[in-house]
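Researcher: Please translate sequence to C-alpha cells.
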Amino acid sequence: MTRQHTSCCTPAGTPVTLIAPAAPAAGAMRERSTRGQVRLSGGEFAMGDAFDEGYRADGETPVHAVRLSPFHIDETAVTNAQFATFVKATGHVTDAERYGSSAVFHLVVDADPSDVLGVAAGTPWWINVRGAHWRRPEGGRSDITGRQNHPVVHVSWNDASAYARWAGKRLPTEAEWEYAARGGLEGRRYAWGDDLTPDGHWRCNIWQGRFPHTNTVEDGHLTTAPVKSYRPNGFGLWNTAGNVWEWCSDWFSPTYYAHSAPQDPPGPDTGTARVLRRGSYLCHDSYCNRYRVAARSSNTPESSSANLGFRCANDTSGGPA
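Model: Translation complete:
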C-alpha cells in the first residue's frame, strides 16, 4: 500500500537568515575530469518503485522504461578532504556560511547554548544552529578532524553545483543516479537485493532503534560513515543507500514520471526544489523509508543540513578526461 507523505529527513529551507546572503558565483568550468569516476555503458532500465512502498507525494511511480547514454559517475560521495581542496582553491563560501546557520540533528549538537536558535518547523529533531557548516558539522565546538574521508555535509545544491563545475564535472541526473545506484540489479528494493540485512549484516548506514531518540548504532555509526563503508554495488559505487542524501541536477515534480522523456530524461524544465536521492543516516522505516533505491525526495537549492551531500557525474566525451 502506498504510504502517505511524512516529514522528510532534511528540513526545508534555511530556517533563519542571520546575515544577508550573497548570490554564489557560478565560476568557470575547469577542464573535464573523470578522476575517481566509473564509466557506465548506459542502456535501458525500469525506473521507479516496483513494490509500491513509496510516499505518494514523492512520486515514485509509475515505473517506466528509461534509456541512458553512457556516462561517468563518482565512486563515492564527495569527501570533506575533496571539498576542502575546492574551498582552498576557490575561496567558495557555502550557503550555510552565508546564511549563518544550518540544521543539526538534536542528539549531536555541539555548540554554545547561545548558538542554538530553535527547531525546524515540523521536524523537532532538527536544531537550527548558528555557526554550523561543513567545517563544523555539529556546531561551533565541532570540527572534521578525523573525518577527512567522510562525506561533506551542510552543502546546498548551489554549493554542490559550484564544486562540480570547479572539478570539471556535473551533478548526475536523477535517472543516471538511480541507474548507477541499482548496480545492474533490475527491479530490486535495495542496491544489493530485496532484504535489508542479508545474513543479518547491515549494508548501509541508517537509523536503528526508535527514531528520533534512541539509536542502537548496530550499523556502527550514529552520524556519517566513511565514504567507502560497507560494500560497493555491482558497478563499484559505494554507499548508494543511507549515510547522506545526494543532490541531483533535476528539478523535482511528483508527477514527472508520468510524462518523463524515454531517452536521457533531464527532469522538469522548472521547479522550486531539486531532487535528492539515497536517504541518510537518519532514515528509518517508521517515518522515512527512503533508503530504497527507487526512493526520492527534494529540497530547495539553498537548503543545507548535517545529512546533505552529493557526488558528481560526467559525460563520456567532451575533451580530456
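Researcher: Any highlights?
Model: The longest strand covers residues 123-130.
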